[in-house]
Write a structure and sequence with these properties.
Blueprint lengths: L1 H41 L6 H7 L5 E10 L2 H5 L6 E20 L4 E12 L11 E5 L1 H9 L5 H13 L5 E5 H6 L1 E2 L2 H8 L9 E2 L8 E9 L11 E4 L32 E6 L4 E13 L2 E7 L25 E3 L9 E4 L8 H5 L8 H4 L2 E5 L4 E15 L14 E13 L2 H50 L2 H16 L11 H5 L1
Antiparallel strand pairs: 1-2, 1-17, 2-3, 3-8, 4-5, 6-7, 8-9, 10-11, 11-12, 12-15, 13-14, 14-16, 15-16, 16-17
Helix pairs in contact: 1-10, 5-7
Amino acid sequence: MAVARRRLSVGLGVAGVACAVLGGCLLLLGPVIIRQQVIKNVRIDPSSISFRMWKDIPVPFYLTVHFFEVLNPKQVLQGAKPVLSQRGPYVYREYRYKTNITFHDNDTVSYLEYRNLFFQPHLSNGTEDEYIVVPNIMMMGAAVMMEKLPNFLKILLSGALASLKQEAFMNRTVGEIMWGYEDPLIDAINMIVPGLIPFKGKFGLFIDFNNSDSGLFTVNTGMKNISQVHIVDSWNGLKKVNYWRSSQCNMINGTAGEMWPPFMSPTSLEFYSPDACRSMTLVYEQSGKFKGVPTYRFVAPKTLFANGTDYPPNEGFCPCLQSGIQNVSSCRLNAPMFISHPHFYNADPSLVDAVEGLHPSKDQHGLFLDVHPMTGIPMNCSIKLQLNLYIKQVSGIIQTGKIKPVVLPLLWFAESGSIEGSVLNQFYTNLVLLPSVLEYLQYIFLGLSVPLIISAAVLMAMSKRSDAEKSPSAPARQSKAPSSSSETTPLLHDTDTPSQDDAEA
């Protein structure tokens, strides 16, 4: 029994020590192993898991467009406040893919990314054949652009507009406004003021958005420094753009807006947007989960489109009177175009009050990015922007009537997408489930080691106590044996001790 107990205690002790060693190894080496796997698989390398996702984005992206129809164009010409009605959404499935992928010796890679858009009738509230009353963008834009030119040129343009039957507002289909329409006004304007509109053919707000690239990006691969992966090295060969009035505003910061370096901190992220002609900074809002995957949510700060008075670093973007809009005329052919959040969300209230029909809301009009912080891969996103046209009465151009100066919303759009299906399952298994299993195992092993070692110690103590109780009984029996012999064996008496008879004698 004692031998069995001793063997059991040794077995439990060995098992306890083994669990402690395994738990300690997982505790120390587990994070290192996971980190190395993340580094290996998020860098831009043909052998990495994320390379295929980076090259041909498998995430279903959708472009959702809402137009603002002007309900009172005649009254606006007489100086009334524009009354707007939101139309749509008109939804397009967006496919993105990269071409001309070229790796360089300085740990960078160059590529062109193309976008293809396909109308989705079943997701849309309307068709591309529907007519919408909007400002005559070409005419009103040209009028404001010519405001400071000599009067005879403006009168000449006004005569050309009359002969072409051009008016301040037009009734066009969604498809025409989006993808372009033939307009003889383009040639007429270029004849009067050569180079004012540096393009020919069709004009459409998204004509350069479909079947076209967003410029030549050169980004870091992260092969030598993982903290630099996806960071833009140059765009169209430029280290900085020259659209804006300050060096800080012209900087190309962050990534191309698709992925970010891994092991993110809950602070902020940056990306360069060719559509906005600038770098943008989003700030951390909260932690959450997207279908079981932990995420950091980043949103636009109120300072994103603030003017220089409210936020001095933005002075180089826009000498605007109101906060909440950004003048992009310098990168949009000098047309008086402004970008903002939809419905002038987070903008100066005067912009909302200048028109009727806007209802800004964070839930509907705020942009966000939900990014997995360990890998820097977006799980769910919705980037929303609004296009606005500055219109006003221009003396000498009678077609502008008595329009009061106003930043008039034309449309707002959202580019949205989220990881789903097999991509989500693979992502969850490799980067969420397995690390969680390793984490749980280390605590299970460490937790088991304690009772096992304690049990072994208890059994060993019990075994020693049992042995100790048995060992004194043997000497006791040995001490009685001589006593018994001395009583029965006279020969063992000491001969020097006198007997009773000798004593009497």
